[in-house]
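Is this the right way to post structure tokens for a design question? Let me know if I should format differently. Anyway, here goes:
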């Protein structure tokens, strides 16, 4: 078990840290959206009529098989519009709910389209490789949790043991143990639930054995989906506002939050209306399908017993229900998981550094660079993602590359650069990357102020800008922590005899 715990963490720790880091940020993905998309920083308002918006969307979504509108909520006051034209990528726009007017295209994938999907797919689409890598890491995390409990015989004693006055190596191990015990229930539940969410990818054989090639039947029975082919004859659509009102009445006050029009403008068009998932842990599957030209009810979907269990587990993981206190607890425990993974790496390095140096082995040097790039590296890359978002004006492109793609390129190039920096300057990499994190975090706050006028005092004074203030405060807190760490690392490095590796000294 000790061998499994050690090497499972060393081999997959970098991937696990990236998954935990992006998952932690995804707790506030809608708030990150509002920070990165200034046009959506609207005051909360009830949704206005959908029919005028539908008329305005005809030219924008012409040729699309379907288009959708996500109605406003407290966390996302702007209406989100999505559509995909034949042969094109999925497109997303926002509209003012009070007027139905389309807002300027922010030109970014921000939190919901970049950070959140990175958490579970790494944005690697080919052959579902990203999903499988995350699944393997999830299975490894469960094994690490179980083996960690077994190898720590005094697990409750470890929780209350933090010897800050001892050698840094002892402190790192204590911190690893405390974070592991503190977040153990959360880490097990969040990892297991993440695997259960994608059961059709990781364990598809029962579904295939039961339904064979009839996957549409499975989708209809499990998720309440309905579909029918396009007729190829034009026909107008009934009032969307009337259909939303009928769905709300059917659900006895349950709030519709999602409207999707399939085959718009066609005689076989139909409208999908889904019930909000913000009032319960279970992500309900309540849905109604209406005939587009007549408004006749075509299909009603509701949650079935087995899927109720799966959707409850999914709700625990996604935390889309309204509960701000629990959301902050998720955020804190996610960060605790990041600290646990990082300190596990550091303890492995320091327990083997002298032995590897004596034997002339390169293992520590390789893992050292991997640790730096996967910990401070991905944090710096994320901050670079935020900074470039505020630097580039809306509508900006370079060599034919759109703004959102440039942001993603900056993230990945910055992340790769941190690994190269870690292996090229091992004695200074931790300190210098902490300095970079501090500088980037402060720059992001200043650039937000200069480009939008929403400085911290203004954001705190206006309730609808509190998510912007929260983002700025967390960035400043990150900068402060990075500055303190960089200062302490620098002092320890300069306090050691010449020739001693600075980072090795700092970590010991």
């Amino acid at each position: 078990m000790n061998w499994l715990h050690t090497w499972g963490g060393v081999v997959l720790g970098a991937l696990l840290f990236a998954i935990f880091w992006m998952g932690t940020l995804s707790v506030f993905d809608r708030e990150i959206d509002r920070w990165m998309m200034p046009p959506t920083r609207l005051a909360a308002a009830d949704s206005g009529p959908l029919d005028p918006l539908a008329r305005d969307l005809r030219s924008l979504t012409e040729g699309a098989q379907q288009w959708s509108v996500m109605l406003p909520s407290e966390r996302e006051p702007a209406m989100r519009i999505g559509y995909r034209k034949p042969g094109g990528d999925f497109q997303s726009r926002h509209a003012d709910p009070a007027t139905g007017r389309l807002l300027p295209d922010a030109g970014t994938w921000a939190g919901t389209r970049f950070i959140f999907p990175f958490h579970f797919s790494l944005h690697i689409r080919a052959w579902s490789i990203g999903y499988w890598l995350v699944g393997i890491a999830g299975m490894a995390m469960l094994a690490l949790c179980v083996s960690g409990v077994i190898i720590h015989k005094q697990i409750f004693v470890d929780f209350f043991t933090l010897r800050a006055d001892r050698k840094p190596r002892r402190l790192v191990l204590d911190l690893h143990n405390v974070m592991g015990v503190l977040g153990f229930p959360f880490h097990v539940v969040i990892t297991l639930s993440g695997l259960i969410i994608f059961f059709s990818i990781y364990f598809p054989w029962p579904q295939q054995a039961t339904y064979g090639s009839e996957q549409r039947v499975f989708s209809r029975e499990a998720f309440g989906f309905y579909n029918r082919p396009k007729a190829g004859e034009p026909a107008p659509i009934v009032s969307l506002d009337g259909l939303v009102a009928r769905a709300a009445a059917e659900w006895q006050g349950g709030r519709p939050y999602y409207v999707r029009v399939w085959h718009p403008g066609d005689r076989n068009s139909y409208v999908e209306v889904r019930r909000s998932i913000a009032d319960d842990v279970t992500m309900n599957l309540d849905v109604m399908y209406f005939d587009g030209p007549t408004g006749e009810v075509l299909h009603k979907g509701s949650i079935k017993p087995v899927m109720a269990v799966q959707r409850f587990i999914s709700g625990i993981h996604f935390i889309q229900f309204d509960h701000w206190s629990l959301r902050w607890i998720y955020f804190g425990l996610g960060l605790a998981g990041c600290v646990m993974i990082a300190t596990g790496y550091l303890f492995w390095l320091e327990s083997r550094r002298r032995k590897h140096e004596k034997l002339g082995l390169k293992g520590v040097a390789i893992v050292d660079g991997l640790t730096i790039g996967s910990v401070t590296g991905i944090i710096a890359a994320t901050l670079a993602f935020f900074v470039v978002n505020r630097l580039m004006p809306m509508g900006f492109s370079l060599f034919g590359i759109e703004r959102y793609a440039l942001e993603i390129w900056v993230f990945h190039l910055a992340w790769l650069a941190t690994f190269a920096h870690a292996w090229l300057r091992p004695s200074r990499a931790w300190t210098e990357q902490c300095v970079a994190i501090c500088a980037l975090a402060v720059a992001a706050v200043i650039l937000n102020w200069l480009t939008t006028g929403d400085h911290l005092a203004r954001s705190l004074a206006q309730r609808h800008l509190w998510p912007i203030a929260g983002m700025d405060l967390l960035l400043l807190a990150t900068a402060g922590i990075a500055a303190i760490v960089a200062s302490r690392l620098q002092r320890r490095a300069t306090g050691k005899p010449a020739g001693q590796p600075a980072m090795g000294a700092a970590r010991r």
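Format looks fine. Someone answered above. Worth noting: The chain has a mean pLDDT of 90. The beta strands are 66-70, 79-84, 90-95, 256-262, 270-275, 287-291, 297-301, 397-398, 401-402.
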